[in-house]
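Sync notes, pocket subgroup
Present: LS, DG
LS reminded everyone that the earlier model was apo-only. Rerun requested with S-adenosylmethionine included. Inputs:
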Amino acid sequence: MPDEAPHIPVMLQEVIDNLAVRADDCIVDATFGAGGYTRAILAEGASVIAIDRDPNAIKAGQNLVVEQGGKLRLVEDRFANLEAICAEPVDGIVADIGVSSMQIDEGERGFSFQQDGPLDMRMAGEGVCAADVVNHAPRKDLTRIIGLLGDERQASRISAEIVERRAKQPFETTLDLAALCEKTLGRNQKTRIHPATRTFQALRIFVNRELHELADALLAAEAVLKPGGRLVVVTFHSLEDRIVKRFLLDRSESAGGSRHLPQADMAAPTFTLKKRNALAASKAEAERNPRARSAKLRAAIRTQAPARARDYALFGLPNLPEPQEVAA
Ligand SMILES: C[S@@+](CC[C@H](N)C(=O)[O-])C[C@H]1O[C@@H](n2cnc3c(N)ncnc32)[C@H](O)[C@@H]1O
């Protein structure tokens, strides 16, 4: 990728290796972003169905669609809708979970605690925004959102300060909320992590329902992949990786039976794991691209067994209200 690439694709070589792309394959890139993975897959001769919920990403990808003359279909949608998007079974699916550098770098999208902008954080630009949650959610919900989705031990202190402050003046901007987090927690000189990091992460995940989206996408992938089809998922924090790990461990074992039942009565595994553990980025990549440091890649191959019933319990999703329930 050239230096001016808007988003440097993470673990690109590992993604391509694990997708094992063959010419004439049809591969889904569930998170088009700046098209880093899509370009590499197209270069292997496959056709691509690329999805992104962000209208800016879709607009920016239109030149590539024209250039590829029918090899690339670009769909503005949520990847949870994978099954409805794919008319036919596909040979591979890749998802690169989270936000793109473009989204973080554009202050007016409201994702960054370092750039001023409206407190928005909606990837698709519709529905409940971060300011709605911060200004209206009951304190107990705010504490749980920030604690569970941001892994923030001081969630209760932050929510108390938010509630006190919003009674006088609602939050409108990113820097406003970032300043409150800094005032509440102070700067940790040792870690150099900004005190708003976890709160912003939590709000972003909550507003975009990111964990539910991921769970839905995994279940859809099981339905949409051909036997022998490859699934590759790259995540950037432990909550997401845990969801992928739980799903793949569950689906790579026989299920439904007890050890007293004959093997024939148990549902056969729907995936074979390429490796039991997640892959990390190489040291060289982590040095070149700080974003790659927390990346984890998991890959699996679809078996012939029929997809199993949708069971959300296996994901261990945090029990939180829906964004529209707290933002009224
Ligand atoms: C990390 S970036 C992907 C970067 C891409 N792999 C590349 O090389 O340029 C993640 C992208 O996924 C999109 N995204 C996140 N959640 C989504 C969802 N539920 N449905 C569709 N797109 C989603 C974001 O809008 C963002 O553009």
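DG: The radius of gyration is 21 Å.
LS: DSSP finds 15 helices and eight strands in the chain.
Action: DG to write up.
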